[in-house]
Amino acid sequence: MEAVGGRRRRPRTMLFLVLVALMVIMAMAKTASGGGGGDDGGAGGDHDHDHEQFLKLWNGRGGEDAKEDYLNWDDDDDDDEDEDEEEEEAEQVVAWAAKCRPPAGRNVVNVDSFGAAGDGCSDDTEAFLNAWKKACSLNNAVFLVPGGRRYKVGAARFIGPCKNRMIIQIQGTIVAPDEPSEWDPASPRLWLLFSGLAGARIQGGGLIDGSGSKWWANSCKIDRSKPCKGAPTALTIDSCRGVSVRNLRLQNAQQMHLTVSRSRDVRLAGVRVDSPEDSPNTDGIHVADSTAVTIQSCRIATGDDCISISNGSFAVRMRDIDCGPGHGISIGSLGQGGAFAAVDGVSLDGARVARAQNGVRIKTWQGGAGYVRNVRFAGVRVDGVDHPIVIDQFYCDATRPCRNRTSNVRVSGVVFRNITGTARRAEAIRLACSDAVPCVGIVLSDIDLRREDGGGEVQTVCNCAMGFDDGRVSPAADCLRTSPCGGMSPDDYHPDDKDDDDEVRHSEL
Q1: How far apart are CA 354 and CA 326, in angstroms?
Q2: pLDDT of 30 over the 80 cut
Q3: What is the pLDDT of residues 251-305, one digit of tens each?
Q4: Is beta strand 150-152 parallel, antiparallel or unpaired with respect to 387-392?
Q5: How much of the chain, in percent, has pLDDT values that exceed 70?
Q6: Residue 203's beta-bridge partner residues?
Q7: pLDDT in tens, 454-500
Q8: Per-residue H/E/C for 109-138
Q9: Max CA distance (Å), the chain
Q10: Can you give the pTM of this predicted structure?
Q11: CA atoms of 282 and 302, how far apart (whole Å)
């Protein structure tokens, strides 16, 4: 086992040695040139400072005193071991479910035993809630939704705390009522809610189908004569800790498919989302007011953001994401209606985005306040994406034009690294930042974007975005280094400066 662990760590060790060698070479070059980093250091000192900050951002650290490195995957080995254990037990659960033999030490609660018909027509909501009440009271319980059946379930709240080591095993199909008129008016924004759980696992390879087509038809984005109003989220993980969701499929949600809110240490892996490209507001995975969320090996095709990360989100890590069609992988929107927003420590390492409006994006409304900082988008392949790289501080998803405001959510310390592929529009990189609250510390490194089907040149468009480029960057991003904005020049930015308002405030859901 030690040998295996050593092999796993060797790539990170080599990477660390390479970074150390780079730093030594840079220090030698600085010494040889006589640059001491003082006030008279000149352009050479600025260049060294840029590269020093780039290394910090590349490694996910905003400053020397960073206590936690949210952007690194240093615990991958532990995560892999946990995944292996969970996968092994999941396979055992599936095996005994097929043989009607529960595993030793597990208390199986089958929804069929509580009167669920599983015919897709009868209302099985009460049977599910009664089965949940029983399962929640037992240690080592398995709440079982058997395979090969279709359960029609209305708005349902599965509330904890429950006894230890709960497994929610969804092998069959759970389908929502398809008529909005049948929906419980007491639960207008929720369909399946899991709340107050610790250490539970939701798994099984089954399907959650929101029957959303009639909800979409009533959306103001489809029929502008109708008022804009919310619709249920298919699956919500709320006020939970240490919960994992693995190998589930969600499709045709009324609005969002899977939301993680007010939770900590949540892991989503092997989740698949499928909805039509024109389905409105159907975000695949949405994170809000949560810390330490991992999203890994997920395939999302939908009509809105594949993944959206909203206010109060910290230490969100994404890896191996397949997105498209959709609106891309987004932070935001933030600051609507003058709200304060805080997002810190977000990383994406490895993604493919195809046939989407955006690749990776940060979007904020004018008039908001707060910050987005310590963000890294890396290892992204884009195929036929309108705008592969976007920061938009003038976001306006409203029926009327938005008024100009002087305040905004501050965006700082954002790295776009190793992003390659094709764009459908000329503006492959759009960095549209506020004149009053410019984006600072923006880094473009190893970018290679070209026009799809050779249809002309692509370009980088900047407004009040300050930072630098590193390595090969195509299209060129000279605008990051050149223009002053709002009385600030690129040389005025110091990434180690503390934000004016570090207080974290959470908005209502």
Answers
A1: 8
A2: no
A3: 999 999 999 999 999 999 999 999 999 999 999 999 999 999 999 999 999 999 9
A4: unpaired
A5: 74
A6: 169
A7: 878 999 999 999 999 999 999 999 999 886 685 455 555 554 444 44
A8: EEHHHHCCCCEEEEECHHHHHHHHHHHHCC
A9: 81
A10: 0.82
A11: 6
* Residue 327 among the catalytic residues: yes
The b/e string for 57-66 (b: 16+ C-beta within 10 A; e otherwise) is bbbbbbeeee
> Domains (ranges, CATH) in the chain?
147-492 (2.160.20.10)
- Can you spell out the DSSP letters for 233-275? EEEEEES-BS-EEES-EEES-SS-SEEEES-EEEEEES-EEE-
Structure tokens at 81: 């071991």
Q: Which of 51, 327, 494, 506 is catalytic?
A: 327
**The two structure tokens encoding residue 408:** 């905004």
pLDDT tens for residues 49-77? Answer: 444 444 444 444 333 333 344 445 445 55
Backbone angles phi, psi at 399, to 5 degrees: -75, -25
82: confidence class by pLDDT, cuts 50, 70, 90: low
- Give dist(CA 419, CA 381) in Å, integer: 6
Residues 144 and 423: their CA atoms lie apart, in Å, by 45
Which residue in 32, 29, 57 sits closest to 376, CA to CA?
57
